[in-house]
């Protein structure tokens, strides 16, 4: 059904380039290239907030409002999600700073 590991020749980004050229060598070389120009720190100090402010200044992920529904002569309260008049939280400072997701380092404990 499938190709075995010894016969299949796939792209593996961590393969060594000692075997010669080809697409495998190009991918492995790109993984080792350092960005030129300004140095980017490995830490992230801020992020976009995932919460919202409502009209009253309350902060939450979701807002609901209670509505009264009359069905078959019975009054019933339902919660309806509010989508209008919400202001995004904006930029949030991280304390402590996090390591950037694209930072090419393997962390391990000894």
From TrEMBL:
An example Gene Ontology CC term for this record? mitochondrion
Residue ranges of region Disordered?
1-21
* Family matches, as Pfam families: TUSC2
Q: Per its UniProt entry, which superkingdom is the organism in?
A: Eukaryota
Give the InterPro entries listed for this entry.
Answer: FUS1
Report the record's Gene Ontology biological process terms: cell maturation; inflammatory response; natural killer cell differentiation; negative regulation of interleukin-17 production; neutrophil-mediated killing of gram-negative bacterium; phagocytosis; positive regulation of interleukin-10 production; regulation of mitochondrial membrane potential
According to UniProt, the name of this protein is Tumor suppressor 2, mitochondrial calcium regulator
